[in-house]
Amino acid sequence: MTTLEVKDLHVAIDNQEILKGVNLVMKTGEVHAIMGPNGTGKSTLSQVIMGHPAYRITSGEIYFDGQNLADMAVDARARAGLFLAMQYPAEIQGVTNIEFMRAAINARRPEDDPISVMDFIKKLDEKSAILSMPEEMSARYLNEGFSGGEKKRNEILQLLMIEPKIAILDEIDSGLDIDALKVVARGVNEMKSPDFGVLMITHYQRLLDYIVPDFVHVMMDGRIVKTGGPQLAKKLEAEGYAGLRDELGLDIVLTDENVDAGL
Amino acid sequence: MTKYQKQDISLTAAQQLPLPNFPKVKYASWHLDQLMPVQKAISNAHFLTAEDVGIEILGTQAGHQYLPQELINAGVLVMSIQAAKKDYPQLVQRYLSSVIPADQDRLSAQNLLQYNAGIFVYIPDNVVIQSLLQLVLVQNATTTGDAVQRILIYVGKNAQCTILQQLRTMGEATIKSSTVIEVFLDAGANVQYSAIDALSANTSGYLNRSALLADNAQLNWAQAEFNRGNMVMHLDTMLSGQGAQTHANVMAMVSQKQVQGINTRVSNRGRHTIGHILQRGVILDHAALVFNGVGNIIKGAKGADAQQESRILMLSKKARGDANPLLLIDESDVTAGHAASVGRMNAAQLYYLMSRGLCEKVARRLVIRGFMGPILAQIPHQVVRESIIEDIERQLKDAHQ
Ligand SMILES: Nc1ncnc2c1ncn2[C@@H]1O[C@H](COP(=O)(O)OP(=O)(O)OP(=O)(O)O)[C@@H](O)[C@H]1O
Ligand SMILES: [Mg+2]
């Protein structure tokens, strides 16, 4: 069993505090979801766990299987079993998806024992089929010219190919049409096992109908303010974040409060 | 043809001509105008093998040479320039100096007077060559003696071909190199011209690759500069006829202590001509790279389009890079634009790759490849692309970073 533990994490960027004491524990075999208003630090949390160089941890720790991540570079974290499907994945022209995924797999193997071309292609075909991705996609340059939805699918393809222990999926559902959402959910569900844990950041309860979480966390103003079961997401959908805030007696200004849809 | 008449010139007159101008590159101390053109034949080097269509010149001798029968029947000529002078003197005479005037500058003029090796290609009107045509010049640096070589290519009306031309060194001796390449595209000709220049660290040299395009001719250059020594280079395209088009794609990688200056110029002379320059340069270690991009629209070239984009990636604090765009426009009814930048490694791309477990070294290599991506994407032949990627990888491995 692998554990990811975030302890009283404070993070700043340009001297502005964004995470203000996040606590979170998750284990393999579990499905977690984080919801929360725009700009409350969800992506920041995921990037800090992965090790993005732009963010500064001012206090607190992150442990992966008891090991302090502060001592590990981004690539070492990945090889230890962490994965982040990014909200905005980078595009790289000149490097094909195939080549990149092979390099990623081989980075986890001894240098003198790279995956054979046959095994690799077989696995790639199998995983692409789960995601209904045409073969040609992998021959294209990494994310280059991919539509929003295709990029998301490609992130999940990498997840299936790399098979990490713990994955964070940042808004993997945004920009997907209804059918694509089901396909992507199928991909994630395919990974489910006692040896795999997933943390999904999402704005929409709909995703959680397809990938049912064990825990739902609500993040506001740089903290996790409430944790519950799948019902919590349904309740948020019905009552909005202001309702929860008032119920918890929090002193937070929500940017989009009191806006009616103008219908 | 009278318009491009060759001028005769003497060695003394050549010495009086000015050195070609490479802004921001000081190269007078390389003494590229003092050549000792002695090259021995090499017998053991091979960049081409059995079925490769084309010719390989080893030192001064033709090595591998192969042309399928149907191309021979169609009147295609691919041979050493000496053989061509002997067997087809009028053809050589007609096109030699038709693109680069004999008195253009000291270094080209000296090449014209002193070259002792090279290649002649003649593709008659309407001939379409499907196979990749390979032209390889191997410079012999197993002993001292400078390499002075020339390539002359004529592509007839509506003829088409894809060329891969390489410049390579065998041996470690310190030599100088002078290479002048003239490409003449007659009306409606269409050529994909990829070049890999990979001369040794102990070679300093001058390279002038120039083309002249008649009406509606189209030339796509992809020039990969992987030379390890000090080089000054011209890539010069004259869009003479109306509707002529060129894409001048250049990638360069410099490392250790080398200096490279690259002038890439497109002149729009004909109406509705299109010239696009796209350049990517990577600098490692202490090296220096200068891109001088010139878009020159000549008076009367109504409807011409001149665009250029040059980007340099600096991978060490000691690297020196310069991208100078220049637009010289002498006509009002035209479109033109330029972009240039000198920057460092794309951090977002590096992070993304490393977040999948790639170690920094491999990730950096891929990001650098990605930076070259826009040029690689312009290269139609997979074989050529892969060969260029191999060269990139090799140089990155060798550099100190
Ligand atoms: N690199 C950065 N530079 C400057 N500000 C940043 C940076 N990254 C995050 N921030 C700021 O930190 C705050 C939290 O951003 P973050 O992306 O973590 O929010 P989020 O919860 O993921 O929002 P969303 O739901 O809109 O994706 C925002 O105010 C954002 O502008
Ligand atoms: Mg976000």
Automatic annotation (TrEMBL), chain A:
One of its GO terms (molecular function) is ATP binding. Keywords: ATP-binding, Nucleotide-binding. SUPFAM superfamilies: P-loop containing nucleoside triphosphate hydrolases. It holds the Pfam family ABC_tran. The keyword Lyase does not apply. InterPro entries: AAA+_ATPase (IPR003593), ABC_transporter-like_ATP-bd (IPR003439), ABC_transporter-like_CS (IPR017871), FeS-cluster_ATPase_SufC (IPR010230), P-loop_NTPase (IPR027417). Residues 4-246 form the ABC transporter domain. It comes from the Bacteria. Belongs to the ABC transporter superfamily. Ycf16 family. This is ABC transporter domain-containing protein. It comes from Leuconostoc fallax.
Automatic annotation (TrEMBL), chain B:
GO terms for biological process: iron-sulfur cluster assembly. Residues 67-135 form the SUF system FeS cluster assembly SufBD N-terminal domain. Belongs to the iron-sulfur cluster assembly SufBD family. It comes from Leuconostoc fallax. It holds the Pfam family SufBD_N. Residues 145-371 form the SUF system FeS cluster assembly SufBD core domain. This is Fe-S cluster assembly protein SufD. It comes from the Bacteria. The lineage of its organism: Bacteria, Bacillati, Bacillota, Bacilli, Lactobacillales.
